[in-house]
Amino acid sequence: MTFTLAIVGRPNVGKSTLFNRLAGKRLAIVDDTPGVTRDRREAMGNISDLEFRLIDTAGLEEGAPGTLSDRMRKQTEAAIEDADVTLMLYDARVGVTTMDEHFGAMLRRAKKPVILCANKCEGRAVQEGVFEAYTLGLGDPVPLSAEHGEGLADLYQFIVSALKEIGIDPYAHEEEEYGKGQSRNEDTGPEEGDLNYEFVDEEGQNDDERPLRLAIVGRPNAGKSTLINALVGEDRLITGPEAGLTRDSIAVDWEWEGMPVRLFDTAGLRRQARITEKLEKMSVADTMRAVQFAEVVCLMLDGELGIEKQDLKIAEKVVKEGRALVIILNKWDAVKDRLDTQRQLKDALTKSLPQLKGVQIVTVSALMDKGLDRIMPAVEEAYSMWNARIPTSPFNKWLSDTLEKHPAPSVAGRRIKIRYGAQIKTRPPTFSLFCNMPDDLPDSYVRYLENELRRDFNLPGVPLRFYTRKGSNPYEGRRRQNRDSKRGKRYGKGSK
User: Fold this and answer.
1) Which end of the chain is more exposed for a tag (fewer CB within 10 A), N or C?
2) What whole-number distance in Å separates Cα of residue 433 and Cα of residue 467?
3) Is 392 annotated as a binding residue?
4) Strand 430-435 versus strand 4-9 pairing type
């Protein structure tokens, strides 16, 4: 069974840097600004052959009840309670501070194994700060540098010893299989006229083995963290009236009717012109990474404010990434004119993003736990359409009927002929069209095909992609043979 390590300490001692180092990838935002991390973040980590579940926490700070510092401290206390072993970091360059002493006493009262880590131990000038650690009464400190990866061998031995003291075999763990065996779909598409062609969706073959990745995005203070807490049934994420509480994307594992789901809480996306601070730019980049790795994205709107220009821009980014989309209209209990709010939302989507016509809209109140039971059925339906597969033969029958009803336009006196097509990918549904002049096919006509396909095959609100390829000329080889034959007759064999 995999054991759990929690990384704790006061702000700006390098907890997120060590978290990223042990996780083997950049998951947590790292910045010199104290207090960047606010929610606890989880990932699988390892040191050599030692694998474990890892929890990054907010900086330990004291605050009055109900304040942001108090809410962050409660999240850290929950992580300590959940962990088998706690890693307490302090800054060896600064030495042991009063705050370190205060939280060292708190960890001693927790009666769980604590490994004291003296971070930022690059060079010899920090030896005095390392010796100060003995005043905390937490045993020998482990000198390390999370940024440079120094001292991890010693940390390995300390972790093994701490686990043996509490009767846990550190090597009796199960391999983390998430993502194992996935392969990229290398299908290059059909040859023209191959009605028996059906692509193999290797990417979707492992869906039953991994959780559905669902990202919640939207403007600041729309209620994203509140929604996730309501879905999972616990105060997993920090919430409050302050805008911009979430700074980096937090993954929360959950299960809905037997289906594993990985929820991603993300930082609020403001207008680009208002984003000036480095930390917010990093938060926005982290949010967009969450969208790229998600399969379904829920765009959360504030029902009291209605849809705004920034919401439409976020929806457009989701569509460009090719993700399935569900719109959640939050704070529905506080909306006075509900019919007018829904009408304005549908009008704005029809006018600005016609490709999202028919996208599912779910009205909820995350704070009051109302309407939450309608979210996952809508997500499941959007996910199903995102994985839709249309066989080659029905697709070409549809294509023939659609072209007959409205033929492709002519360009410079030459008619564009679309001869054949097939679906080459799902997630989102992607199609390849063979035509004689692929570069000249107008975007307006491609949008016409998208709309017709979406309507005829019942794919509302799903991003569709069309790629055009130049079809081969069936008479090209015959003309070359005739030309060579005439040339041979004209000159004769052996003529000069």
Assistant:
1) C
2) 6
3) no
4) unpaired
Q: Is 463 annotated as a binding residue?
A: no
The DSSP letter of residue 135 is: G
pLDDT digits (tens, 9 = 90+) for 188-218: 667 766 667 777 666 555 566 689 999 999 9
Q: Strand pairing partners for 51? A: 46
| 91 annotated among ligand-binding-site residues | no
Residue 224 has phi, psi (to 5 degrees) of -65, -50
Question: What local confidence, expressed as pLDDT, does residue 413 receive?
Answer: 85
489 labeled binding residue: no
Q: What is the mean pLDDT of each run of 10 residues along the chain (496 residues)?
A: 86 89 80 64 88 85 70 83 92 89 86 90 78 88 91 92 86 46 51 69 63 93 91 83 70 91 88 65 81 93 90 92 94 91 90 87 93 95 94 94 92 89 92 91 92 92 90 56 58 48
* CA–CA dist 93, 472 (Å, integer): 70
Nearest alpha carbon to residue 447 among 463, 427, 424: 463
* Dist. CA 148–CA 35, nearest whole Å: 22
253: tokens are: 């594992």
To the question of whether residue 60 is assigned a binding role by annotation, the answer is yes
CA torsion, ordered 61, 64, 68, 72, to nearest 10 deg: 40
